[in-house]
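Q: What would this chain look like folded?
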Amino acid sequence: MVESIDSEVMQFAATTNMLLWEGIPWGGATTLVLERFALDDFLAVVRSVSPPILYLDPDGSATAFAANGVVHIFATPAKRKRIVRDMLGDIIPAMSQDTVDDSSAAPASVGDSLSVHNFSDPYFDVRSFRPVAGKVREAVDAVVADERFDGHRTRYVVDEHVRHLGPDDADTVLRVAIKVFTETVGKKLDHQAGRFVDELVKDPAYDPLAGNAEQEEFIAARVDIDDPRLLRHITAALHRRSVETDMGLKLERKLTKYAAKIVRDMPQLERDRLGFASKSAPRLVILERYVNGYTPAQTDFLVRQAARSEEEEYGTLRERRYATAARALQAAGLNRSKVSRILGISTSKLDRIVTAHREDVELTNDDPIVTALAPEWF
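A: My prediction, written as structure tokens:
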């Protein structure tokens, strides 16, 4: 039986550039997908709907997305049983007891028991099916008030406030604190963040490809923020705006075209060196003069795309040219090390291309191998 789906969900979020949020916003209108649905079926729906955020339960047993005010949940079989038990298991016995204790009372229904009041209360715990109270509620409030807590991957903050509680109560604090934060502080922060984002996306220096650290630096330089959680919410809101408006995708398309142009226009020997460079640092040295003025994130993207463009357009012919030259130089009596130094590629790469490309090609008179690397041998 599958007990955890976190790895599949995290991989899906990464490949679709979707913001992954730890914790599911329980308490509002929710649906549990049909039992016959597999995770792949659910993720196919997510891909079709394209919500800005994909939610993941902290224990990796459920994932969800929100659409039109409804949270749609996929859960592992064990989690599904717990959800159904928590929502219904305590209701039916209570209904029977009410009937025994008060014969004049009208029979209650499951729908009546799942009251709007219960689910609208952010302190209502869907697992125990009752609002938290006493020390558990005090711990929840302490967590939510902690400026380090933002409802996302901050379990270590929760641990500091639940040392006096048992494991079950500690789990309840984490679960309810995420819900309370989302419904109270989180909503306020999201509202504030939205106002800032409207201006920040218009800033010429805004880079939708930048990582969180770079985004936070960009925001902090332009907005006077005391609450670190607001900074993180603005960062997340900027990411969502980029996804929703395709800002990042449009920029990537523009940079991809420029990277292809760089490769087409650069001298052939320089392009050959780019093709044989297998790491980012030497590639950046080769491309440095072409990427001046771009942000670090954009530069990284350009370097990757230029290398990919060279490989797709020129890679096979490049390797065949150098394999031909290597065989000619070795036939002239030069050893592998000497050939490697002349052609400017490692012996391991030399061995690979000679083995992979056994048929020679004609080297033109203007080929940089002939004119620059080994003119005395051709």
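The first strand starts at residue 19 and ends at 22.
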